[in-house]
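Homework help thread (please don't just give me the answer)

Our assignment gives two proteins as sequence + structure token strings and asks us to describe the second one. The first is just a warm-up. Here they are:
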Amino acid sequence: MTSKHAATGLSHGHRAAPEHAENAVRRALAKAGCERANAILLFLTPEYAANPEPALRAAARAGGCLQVVGCTGAGILTEEEWVLDSPGAAAMVLGGDIQLAISPLTIRSDEDIVLSLCTPAGLTAGWLDVPARRFGVVSGDINGHGPFKVWSGARVAESEQVDAILTGVNGVLSASQGVRALTSPIEVAEVQGYDIKRLGNYPALSVLVQSLPPSVRDMERVPLHLIMGGVTIGDPETAIREGRYRLNHIVAANPGDQSITLSERPARGERIFWAMRDALVAERDMRNCIVRSAQELGDDPDFALLFPCMGRGPNFFGNRDRDLDNLRSQFPGLPIIGIYGNGELGPLDGANHLFQYSAILGLFSAKAV
């Protein structure tokens, strides 16, 4: 590839035809001014999940390259537009000295940047917990029922896991969780199984209800789909501002004993804050995430990968993808590709983490030769 290190293409229509994958790759190659690619990132909408291989072969032929990596998701995006309501394909072609190395046996170094894709069944703790820096997405659809597919080498991965090491690049990986803190971090004083009984000196549910906006302050009808707990990591005074927390989702609010049941077992002594999903806070957090990532990269990026949760994106921001808008505004013309998934993989406090309702950003610049 002579003129660009990366370029994207998008194609969609009324049916899930292999031609969309072919057209997306050809458009990307035309933007890059070349005839073939070193590697192709190919993301497809859910309509392809039952049988994606004709589209994979079409992309490989169009790009003159068997290194086709990707998955199906609830929707697709490039710097041109996002697609959630029609079958289609998004492709990014990589060239120059940039390669995708498909070999899990080489994932040994914490210097490796690994694009990681999996289905819900392929997501395991052992796979996630490696020294290398993982970032990526769990394949999903709008309903969460599947089927789900991931692929590499232009073939569906029977393991339901794909690892692709990005070489020839400098990269910065970051996550934007962007929730609105309703309380400061409070020590978990009493737990029973998955239930938090007391926070500090007060019943857990009482603390939560008192922190809610007046419009939703009803102990019998807590809006659980919007509320979650944030478990701080490190200094609790700065953890929220610096994004050092993991979200623990609420399963049930129990008025009888004033406890709250969480999706992950809480630990006595950890500090947790109640938080609410908020579009304005999420948008502001994403802007800050982009600025921090650009500063850390220290160079103009050549391309970006963006993986927002399917619960984020246009459905959350009011028919606009503010995450994508902010990235395009910061870097006009930057090649961007991504997919809306069912869980996001990225860094948190020096380890690989499964996020929810978040956006994972990877900014990359080609290494100087």
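The one we have to describe:
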Amino acid sequence: MKTIHVAAAVIVDQGRIFTACRGYGEFKGRWEFPGGKIEKDEKPEDALQREIKEELAADIAVDQFLGTVDYDYPDFHLTMECYLCHVAGGTLTILEHSAFRWVRKEELEKVDWLPADRIAVEWVKGLKISR
């Protein structure tokens, strides 16, 4: 089984969490924390900043490492490095996703998350979000 190594951004602003809906592929219509693949010899934080710039046309600051999700999908193993982040420049603009929403912690359970992201959701629910 192949392994895909990604970084994911839990972007917060004014007590809300940014969520993005996949607009393509097998998981189209499901929600996730944005991010993407980590390239060879790339630090996860650098990959995350690059991916957010590509997918959402904004700059982010990486504030805190939340944890690593290891999840087996039917066709691949996902290793996802999750980070708490905030927008450092620009405005989040969806370029690859079909939709986005800002949600409060108490609304996280109402989102149709991708299975691996559900693990990160549990971590986020336990955070005190001060931004």
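TA reply:
I won't write it for you, but here's a hint about the kind of observation we're looking for: The chain has two helices and seven strands.
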